[in-house]
Each structure stands twice: as structure tokens, then as C-alpha cells.
Amino acid sequence: MTGAAAGCQSENVTRDYAVNSDNIIQTHDGKTIFTANIDVNSVTFMDAKKKKVTAEVPVCKEPRQLTLSPDEEKLYVTCMYDNKVNVISVEDQEVTDSIKTGVEPYGVVTSQDGKLLYVANYRSDSLSVIDLEDEKTVKEIKTGNRPRTLAITADGSKLYVPEYLDAGIDVIDTKKQKVVKVIQLENSPDVSDVKKSQGIPNTLEQFVISPDGKTAWVPHMLTNVDTPVHFEETIFPAISVIDLKKDEEITEQRKELFTSINVKDKSDKAMIVSNPYDVVFQRDGSKAYALMSGSEDLVVFDLKRGGNAVQILRRIEGDNPRGMVLSKDGKTIYVHNAMSHDVATVETGGKLAFSQARLSGENEKLIQKDSLTPLVREGKKIFYSANSDEYAAEITGNNWMSCASCHADGDINGLSIMTAKGMRNVPSNVGTTENGLFMWDGSRDDFNDYLLTVQGEMGGMSELDPGKPIPSDVQHMFDAMFAYLDDPKSFPAPQSPYEDGKKLSADAAKGKELFEGKASCISCHAGSQFTDSTKAVDEDGKLTTKNISFLHDIGTGNTVDRASKGDARAGYLNPRDAKSFDTPTLRGIYDTAPYFHDGSAKTLEEAITRHQYKDKPNLSKGEVVQITQYLKSIE
């Protein structure tokens, strides 16, 4: 099929309601549901009434979000790792075309008249405006850092583009085709009780416009960086509310623990939920439902009675619920579980004030075959889970946080968190099992040592003695997690928008020459992983924390860094001096700001300039720029 034929609508249909990009969407009549099956590389069609899969369509790598054309004849899905959008015929249930995008496309919506396709490019920091007549990009709009999902207003005049980590929301005037405002979510202020909600907003997962078009809800997390990391004091769930007339946050309406989200259990204790991901509204605006992907819960808000949470439906059946749609009559929510690849059904009880949501029936499986091995799948489930009841040992204390709460979608969260040893920049998981020693001070040489993180920071597995071997059933959990982290498909190094795949630019080529020569960066950042940490081995060639020859003092220590006497996992044979640090990988370094162990360098230029080491040459500003250009090209 030609590109023009694939993009055109059969009739002049104009949509008159707001839509947002999501991993699960439905036709306007609610009869057909579509899901993007993230790591299986397929899109599923499901008959909503029968709750039966009618087709599973193969698509390109890592499908993330979907949108329909206004006439609902075409389904568009972003393929994050293939840098394209697949076009699917809804009638024929097959891919008919592909459209090239920027690097790592994520969110996608069509214009209300169906003539344009908007695509948020996560790594390119841009929005592609694609003419669907000839399927060519007619404009690339520069956005803030890491644009992710998208939403378009009912009249089509504005697009909203949340910045995933920086908590800004770019407002795009679709007529002018430019960003006209950035709504910056406010920090939740510090309070004396560190166990109450506070911190910096980040990981903005969705932007859902209310039925009346006056507001939008944005599920995200808050990270408290002021106190030493602790599961009850660092990560908090939140939903921010945006006034769409003023394009401003209504700060007093933010939903947080323990104010708007404060539902008691049978023991009269507040129920903890984690990792907010998606929102749907009753069509009359009477209720809102928020999906918690980490704790695997559904939170119900009564908007006619103060707007607070009135119910927490604990434990959606399935693993890692990330998206949902509400039936046309408002009585049923279909929940998309991203790790078990199935759909769970929740009966809402409708719009009646005192009705209760409840699970209904068995889940419908969305895929024929999992692309991951059972062990890798189990490890991925654990990584994203904050469910305290599901595994051989608690992952987290009372559902507070998952691994993904700090390692956002497995990556960085752009923040530095206070620890007992000082501020620590949250690193990416790219190549983490191949980068040598673990932790910024290289104080761990075995993945099992992360028991200390689970116990001290996440509040889980507290019944285990860290100085003794891990029980076999819990060891299986660590093995699964390692298998997931070790799988090269789990965290591929991001493709750099600064690298065209053919040859380095003139500046980057000169930077490579300086990197390997005059500046001698390669003396530490060497090999395929660009780190010398892999050399920290004993006489038998086994990685060991006792070998401190490859920890380096480059003058980045600060007054809050603290020395350590070691830990029980290593028999206290791994003391650290608070000045020497492990060499981080440079793979994907262009998109892992801030830099250094404490995140104190905001740019690569600053990081290069601040490096202090023996016989460091004087580098001109131009040479620093050239080295930076080379670093940005490394994948």
C-alpha cells in the first residue's frame, strides 16, 4: 500500500473530544480495545463486550503508546526502539505502513481533522509533526527534556507534552506549531514529619483531560532528596491537577499521601500505594480512578464529595498495571497489565456516590507467546513491583516503592538522593552487569549484595541476616532480577541523536582524538563499556571490592560525603574513604545528566572541566566542546 493511501481518511471526519496517548485505548463506541504489548512487539485487538482477543498484530520493536485516526480506520503505534510509527489497518488487522520519527518515539496523537500526526520523541527532545497525506515530517518542534506522552484538547487548539523527569508540561499551540508556555509542577514543600508527602515531582506518566475539558490530571511521583533514603520518607505517589484555561497547576488540589489519598484499612492504618500511572474519569465527572502500577491498586476519587480518595481496590489481578479504559456506560474498567500481558476487569459500580469498585471475572491473555524467558520475565516483574505480598520475601516495606521508583523505567530519574554516605546520583542500568563493581564507591562486587539496598532503602527482606547466605527461594528472586538486568534487550544503550550512524562530525572526531590522546580520558574510560571498573579483580580474575586500584579521586568529593567501615555482606572488608569513586560507563552519557557521584555537574562540559587528575593538560574551551561532542555520540 502506498504511503498516501495508508495515511488518508476515507471520509472527512473531525473528532470533537479530547484524547490522550496511552498503552491501551478503545474506539469511541467502546466496542474494541487495543493494547501495545510493550516487550512482545505486538498490538492486540480485543472485543470489549465479549472480553475476547480477536487479533494480535506483530509490530516493530518496543511498542509503547497508541492513537486512532478520527475516523478510527487507522491505528498508530510508536515503536520506541525502531524510531518509527507503525500504521495498522483496523479493518484488515495488519500493519500497512511505517513512518520514520525521531529517536525513541513514545507518545502519539492525531490532529482532530486527521491530517497530522504528532509524535513525542523521547531521546530527541522534540515533537514530530507529520503530514499524513505523504507521511513526511513537516516540522520538528523542540520540547523540554524527555517528552513522553501526549494529549490534545477537544477543539484541537492545544497539545500538552509532559517532560518525563523534569516535571514541566510543554503547551503547544497547534496553529502556531510552537511551544507557547511551560507549566512547571511545583515541589511539594518540606514538612516536619518526613513520613508525609513532600519532594520533587518527576516521572510524569500521563496527561488525562477531564470530561468537561477544564482540568487535566497528571499521575507522577514525588522524591524527597533532603533526608537519607528510606522507603517511608523518600518516594511518595501524587496526582497533580492542571487548570487548562490558565494553563497553570492548581497546587491546592494535588492528590497526595496523607491528605487526598488517605484510605484506612481494617486496622485503621493508612493504605500505601505506589507508582501512579494512569487516570480515567466517569463521563459525568463524578469520579476519577487512578491506577497504581507499583502496588497494583486502583484508587477511587469522589469528585462530587470533596475530591478525596474514598476507596483503594487492593491488588488488581495481574502484574504491573499501566493503563486502563472505561466502558461507554461507565460501569467497567479494563486494566492493561504490562508484565503479565493480560487485561483485568473492574466493575466500577457506576457513578453512584457510595458504590464500590470490585474485580470481576478472569483476566484475558493478550499474547500468544512471551518474548522473554520465564526467568527474565520474573525479574522484570520484580523490578517494577512494589507489591509487598506477592513474592517469597517482601520487596518493599508496606508497598511504598519499587526499583523503578528511583530507576525511572529502568533508567535514571535525574536526581541525587541523600544516603548515609552522602548525596548519590541515581545511575542508569545500561550495561549494569558488565560495568564492573556496583555502587558509586565500588563497595559491592556481587549482585546479591543488593540485599542491603532492599533492606536499608526499600524496607523489604528485613527478616534476613545480611551477613548470612540468602535462602534459596529468595535467592531465586535475585537470580531472576540479575537475569533481567543482564539481558541485553532489557536496557539497550540509547541511540544518540548526535550520531548519524555513519561517521563522527568534525568536532566529535577531534574530540575522540583528544579523549584518547591529550586529555587521556581513555586511561579510565576504556573498553567496550568505557570504564576500568571491570579490572578490579583478584588473583583468580574474580571481581572483588578489595581491589581499590581502580577507584579514583578526581577532586569531586564534598563536605557531606562520609567514609564507610564496610558492610556485613563483605565481612567489613570493603571500607571506603569518601574521596575515591568507581569509574562510570560513558554509554548513553549524553542523556544521563547530572554527572558525578553526587550529581553536582549539570553538564558534560562542567564534568570535563572539573575532572582533576595527575598531569591533566590545560584544555581550551574549544577542546572541551570537542570532547563533549564525542561523548554525546557514544552509544
From TrEMBL:
PROSITE patterns: CYTC (PS51007). Pfam families: Cytochrom_D1, Lactonase. Keywords: Heme, Iron, Metal-binding. Residues 374-489, 506-635 form the Cytochrome c domain. It comes from the Bacteria. InterPro entries: Cyt_c-like_dom, Cyt_c-like_dom_sf, Host-pathogen_enzymatic-act, Lactonase_7-beta_prop, N2O_reductase_N, WD40/YVTN_repeat-like_dom_sf, YVTN_b-propeller_repeat. This is Beta-propeller fold lactonase family protein. It comes from Fictibacillus iocasae.
